[in-house]
Amino acid sequence: MSGDCQSSPARPRRLNLSIFFPCYNDAHTICALVEQACKVAATHTDDYEVIVVDDGSEDDSRALLQQLAARNGRLRLVLHERNLGYGAALRSGFRHATREWVFYTDGDGQYDVRELSALIARMEDGVDAVFAYKLLRHDPPYRLLISKVYQRAMRWLFGIRARDLSCDFRLIRRSALDKVALDLDSGAICVELVLQLERSGARIVECPVHHYARRYGESQFFRPRHLAATAIELLGFWRRQNRGNGRR
What we know:
Spore Coat Polysaccharide Biosynthesis Protein SpsA, Chain A, 18% strand, globular
């Protein structure tokens, strides 16, 4: 992988940072991502932590992470005894993050965690969140079509302004997160998160990042069962938003 920022930028004033990864059957990628996250964080600050939320993995992810945590004092593990869903994993990560700025991305290796430097470069006084958007999505054609339809539908239904709802590469200020209340368990939580941040008045800036083809495993989101669960949750979420005149 290659990132936008390969140099070691000057450390921002008093940056303190939580980095977390939701993980489900990501044994081939998650440990390398954690190690890379520690390296990139250390170029910006001495005050950081890395958290992995293992959402009931059925492969070797948990055992490998426990071995890594024994060697790396920066790593904390949050363990779900069964698979609770992507939304539950994100809620756990946000809940356990302790620093002023919280960054998350997926554990499957489709993003280069070194590009966190590009998001940090967009931080300035008054910015509450930096959302990444994919320069080019590397997925099979049917997934590209589903994603395009999905994103247009979400913008139409909820009036969301963010460019890329499905780019899970985000840096968010803790004080902005404290103004949202997340409930959804599926991948629909990304709509819930972005919508609530926008409606709370958070100042959001956007930043392009690279997206890479998945080398191991397969996406859980595009399985029929998960697509159905996401659709059902979104319908209920839309009804609640509509009942409340668009406000929670």
